[in-house]
């Protein structure tokens, strides 16, 4: 982390990745059903896939996009995933679309990584917004300067962001389509003549 002095002053947004994915139909619908319900729980079966199929890839990509849109220069966003069940134990920790994506190391839980991030932020006197529905981690790291919200609340806020984006797009499209209608007839005639529409 720490992509610059301006970013480091922002509050930290920490998202418990798989907790959010499993807690919201928004992301559950993107888990690859072709792997089969039993196969999702059977990591050994998935690791035998010669193509390295990862049923969570689309859900993780959608979560990154949503967190990036939600953070919008108001937070330094980090998504933490439990790396124990990943197909690729060497999955890199890297920024994606301005969001730090962190996978716990083998033998380490996502909760441990979250606790470490929150503890570091406390020592830096930074505010933290933690998104998880895991009550154990919420009680472990909660308190000043940490605000915890459920994954359902994040999903509800993202739906509001989606709706606002669509409404804004619709308003801009409508404004473009009706601009000519708002011109008085003589101005419109002059504009049409200039544009050769007569």
- How many extended strands? 6
Main beta sheet: 6 strands, mixed
Distance between the termini: 60 Å
The assigned structural class equals: alpha/beta
Provide a descriptive summary of the structure in words.
This protein is α/β, with parallel strands linked by helices. Helix content is 50%, strand content 14%. It has ten helices and six strands. Strands 3-4-2-1-5-6 form a six-stranded mixed beta sheet. Strand 5 (128-131), helix 8 (135-141) and strand 6 form a beta-alpha-beta unit. The chain is elongated and about 75 Å long. The N and C termini lie far apart (60 Å).
Brief summary:
With 198 residues, the chain is α/β, with parallel strands linked by helices. It has helices spanning 5-8, 17-23, 25-28, 37-41, 43-47, 57-71, 110-123, 135-141, 151-178, 185-194, and strands at 12-16, 76-81, 94-96, 99-103, 128-131, 146-149.
Give a topology summary.
Blueprint: H1 5-8, E1 12-16, H2 17-23, H3 25-28, H4 37-41, H5 43-47, H6 57-71, E2 76-81, E3 94-96, E4 99-103, H7 110-123, E5 128-131, H8 135-141, E6 146-149, H9 151-178, H10 185-194
Parallel strand pairs: 1-2, 1-5, 2-4, 5-6
Antiparallel strand pairs: 3-4
Kindly list the characteristics that best describe this protein.
50% helix; six-stranded mixed sheet; alpha/beta; single chain; disordered N terminus
